[in-house]
Design goal:
Blueprint (H helix, E strand, L loop, with lengths): L6 E5 L9 H13 L7 E5 L2 H8 L7 E5 L18 H6 L4 E4 L2 H4 L5 H13 L3 E6 L3 H5 L3 H12 L9 E5 L13 H19 L5 E5 L7 H4 L7 E4 L6 H12 L1
Parallel strand pairs: 1-2, 1-8, 2-3, 3-4, 4-5, 5-6, 6-7, 7-8
Bound molecules: 1,3-dihydroxyacetonephosphate.
1,3-dihydroxyacetonephosphate binds next to strand 8.
Amino acid sequence: MSSKSTLFVANWKMNGTPSDLKEINKVADFLKKKFNKFLKIVIYCPPIPLLTYFSKKKLSSSIKFGAQNVSSTNIDYGAKTGSLSPKLLQKCGAEYVIIGHSERRFKGESFSEIKKKINTSLNSNLKIILCIGETFKQKKNNKSLAILKMQITKSLSMHQNLSNVIVAYEPIWSIGTGVVADQAYLNKIFNFLNIFLKKKYKIRNPKILYGGSVNHSNIKDLRLIYHCSGYLVGGASLKAKNFIEIIVNYYN
Ligand code: 13P
């Protein structure tokens, strides 16, 4: 339900160029001037070269940055060609990191790697956004809850400080398709996740995001999902106009 501290996370995936700083500037201006009655948190997760460049600019205290991937090794620096040190990500401006996105899992990222990535990130005080979600076939076969439970169980360790964990529920069949599940289905999923994270992992107030084809018109329905702390937005986060419309329609 509508909350004053709802998170709006922009996953730019492999999109954007340095000149898109203007898009983030527009969102920063909007947050400062037009919308100051709410505590808004917008988290931009652009590709790494842009993260480093954008985060150096003085924007707005409501705008935070995150990465889209991190190394699974438990060393901060070393002979790991192509790997992303969590410590370096922080120095480059990241406070958050997206882990386990289905687009990476399709490319072979395993849950044991995801678990290691979560460990190294939490040890470096990065907040993590763990992506989970079922395929259409799994949904059709009534397997969604079992799949989500399995994905969380394989990713999170009990002994960690889980207050820095955000779970993003992204049904795979909704990503980039324009198709969004109905309200009853989403409420069932979020209710399950909320109870599961509370009971099994003792997370007092689990933060659970929705992701998958979020746009300025469906946000009016998506804002009604129970226990939803915010949104992970792909395509509609690239242009400031679309992203701002999502935030405006969420609150109006
Ligand atoms: P779209 O909003 O483009 O469907 O992408 C969702 C997503 O994958 C965010 O992580």
